[in-house]
Amino acid sequence: MFVSKKRLSLALPKGKLLEDSVELLERAGVECRQVLGDDRQLTFELPNHHMQIIICRPTDIPTFVEYGAADLGFVGKDTVVEQNKDVAELVDLRFGYCRFVVAMPEDALPPRLSDGSYELRALDRKRVATKFPRVAEQFFSARGMQVTPIKLHGNIELAPKVGLADMIVDIVSTGKTLKMNQLAEVAQIFEATSRLIANRVSYRLKHEDIQVFADQLIHLTGD
Amino acid sequence: MRIAEGLRDLLPGELSFLEEKERGALDLFEAWSYRKVLTTGLEYGECVEPEMPRKGRLYKFFDQEGRVLALRPEFTTPIARLVSSRMRHDALPLRLCYSGDVYRYGSGRYREFRQIGVELIGSTAEMADAEVIALAIEMLRCLGLRDFRISLGHIGVFSDLAVELALEDGLRTDLEDGLAQKDVVRMREVLATCPLPEMAKELLRLLPSLTGGAEVLDRLREFECFDSVRRAAASLRTVFGFLGDFGVQEHVSVDLGILRGFAYYTGTIFEGYIPEVGFPVLEGGRYDRLYEEFGMSTQATGFACNLETLLSLGGQRPSPEADILVCGNAPDRIIRRCRELREAGKKVEMALGPSAYDRLAHDRLVHDLPLHDHRRVEFVE
Asked: Cα dist. A81→A68, A135, B195 in Å?
C-alpha cells in the first residue's frame, strides 16, 4: 500500500480515462474505487494514503498542476504537448493510447512518393481544422510549410466535408471515425499515451513521496 | 475601463507595503556592498533574445526606423550589456543590484511584476557563489519569510559531462530538450537506447533523486570517475560548506534534480521554493558565458526574485496617512499652522475650509471621535 509522508494531491481526468486511471492506482496500492461512483463529487480524501484526488476535465489538468493546485496529474501526452505548460513529466502510464494524424478527404488525397508515403508539399498553405493548433503548426513548420490552423472544439471530421478546411489534425485510436467520414490518414505526427505529470515545486519539496509513487507506477507499467 | 490582461494597479496600502519590503531588501544589498543600477525599460530585441526559452514571451515593438524593441523581461542580460559597455573598465569584482518592473507575455501569473536581484560580476570563486546564495536567503528572511527552501545544484553535471563524453549533437540536443522541458520520460527513453557508458546512464537517471543534505554529495563520489562530476561535486561541497559559515545552511538542500535548460547557466544553480507557491519564487546561478556574447571575457553569478509573488503571501498595511489633521475657521491660520507643523517634520492633513464646511474635520471635532489611526485633530482659532 502506498502511503505518502507529506500530503499529495492528484488530479485525474474525468471521462473515459478515469477507469484506467483508477485501475492503475489500485494496482499501485492506492484504494480509490469510490471516485468512480458519484460523478458530481469532484474531490475525494484518501486518509489512509494521505492523499487527495481531484477530478477535472482532461484539458484542465496541466493548469491545475502548473499552479500547484494539484501536486500530480494523470493526463494524455496530446494535452501536454498542445498546452506546453511548465510541468515535469515523470512516467509514461501506457494507457489511453492514441495517435496524432493528418487526415484528408479520401477523394482528394495528395500524390504518393516512391516509398509509399504521401507528398505533403501539396498541403502547403492549406487550412487545417484541429483541436490542437500548436501541434499542427509545429508539425508543418518543421517541414518548412505554412498552414492556417482553424481551432475547433469537437467534430473535427465535419470541417473538410463542408469546405471549412482542406484537412484535419486530430487524435485517432482505431481510425473508425475517420473512415465513417470518408477521411484517410496521410501522415502520422506522433503517438501519445497518458503521463504522470508533477508540479515543479512539489517535485522538489515532496520529492521522496513523489519518487516512490512514480517508481511504483514505472514498475507496474513495465517502463 | 479595462486594464490589459495580466497587469494590475497597486492601491496605496499595497504599494506602500511593496515599497517598504523593497526598501528593506535594497538596504540589505547595500550592506553587502551592492550598488543599485537601473537599465532602460526598452531594449533592442537582440539584447534580450540570447535566452532561448523567452521566445514568444516578449512584448515587442518597432521603433521609427523599423528596429525591434522589447520591454525588458529580466535584468541579467541588460546589466551584462551595461557592464560590457559603460562599466567595462571598472575594477572587478563588480557588485550590482536592481529592482524594477519586468514584462513577460504569457499565460497565467503576472505579466508585469517587480523583480529584485543582484549580480556579482568578475569572479569564479566559490565564495562568490556562496555570497549570492547567502544574500538570497538573508533577503527572504528580511522579507519576513520563514518556511522556504533553497535547492542548490550544478549544471556541470549535465553540460560538462556532455562535453567530457563527447556526446554527438543529436543525443546532446535530445537530453538538453528533455531537461529544459522537465520531460523525465523522454530522458529515460533516450538513455535506454543511447550508447553512453553504463555509469553515465546510471548517474543521469539518478539525478532527480539526488536531493537532501551533505549525504547527497557523498553519494556523488561513486561517479567521480568522470572529471566533470568530480569538479561539480568539489565545487558544491565548497559552496555548501561556506553556506554553513554564512549561517544559512538550514535553508539549503543539495539538489541535483533542478531541471533547467543549460543554454545560459554554467555552474552552480539554485532555486527558492515556498510550499504554497507552485513555481520557484527565486532563481539564480552562475552564467559565465553570457558576457562573451557582449564581447567581454568575464564570469558572473546572481539571482532574481519576483517580489510581488512573495508579497501576495504577506497582505498589506494601511498606507501612512497624516499624523495631524489641522482645522479651524480661518483659512490663512490653517495654512500657517500646517506650514509650521510640516517644517517640524510632521505629516499634516489640511481641512479644506472652515471646520463647519469640512465634513471630516467637523465630525471629528463635534463628536470628539477617537481616530482609528491615532491621528490627532488640532483646531486653530
From this structure: 19, 7, 27
* CATH classification at residue A154: 3.40.190.10
Could you say which of B290, B312, B334 is where a domain stops?
B312
Question: In this structure, how many other beta carbons lie within 10 angstroms of the beta carbon of residue B222?
Answer: 12
Is the peptide bond between A111 and the residue preceding it cis, with omega within 30 degrees of 0? Answer: no
* A187-211 pLDDT per residue, tens: 999 999 999 999 999 999 999 999 9
Judgement on whether residues B106 and B225 belong to the same structural domain of the protein: yes
Quick check: A204 contacting B, CB < 8 Å? yes
| Enclosing domain of residue A76 | 8-96+193-221
The pTM assigned to this predicted structure is: 0.85
CB contact under 8 A, B209 and A211: yes
Residues of chain A neighbouring B271 (CB-CB closer than 8 A): 204
Chain B stretch 125-184, residues whose beta carbon is closer than 8 A to a beta carbon of chain A: 149, 151, 181-184
Q: Distance from A15 to chain B by nearest Cα, in Å?
A: 24
CA–centroid distance for A148 within its chain: 23
- pLDDT digits 0-9 by tens, B267-324: 999 999 998 888 899 999 999 888 988 889 899 999 999 988 877 776 556 656 678 8
Q: Taking a contact as any Cβ pair under 8 Å apart, which residues of chain A between 47 and 86 contact chain B?
A: 63, 66-69, 86
Copy the grid coordinates of residue B236.
558544491
Closest residue to B182, CB basis, from A200, A205, A207: A200
Name the residue range of residue B368's domain: 324-380
* Same domain as A105, residue A182: yes
* Cα separation, A84 vs A62, whole angstroms: 9
Query: What does the buried/exposed string (b/e) look like for B13-51 if buried means 16 or more CB atoms within 10 Å of the residue's CB?
Result: ebebbbeebbeebbebbeebebeebebeebbeeebbbbb
Q: Determine the residue of chain A that is closest to B277 in CA distance.
A: A68
CB–CB contact A207 B257 (8 Å): yes
Provide the number of structural domains found in chain B. Answer: 2
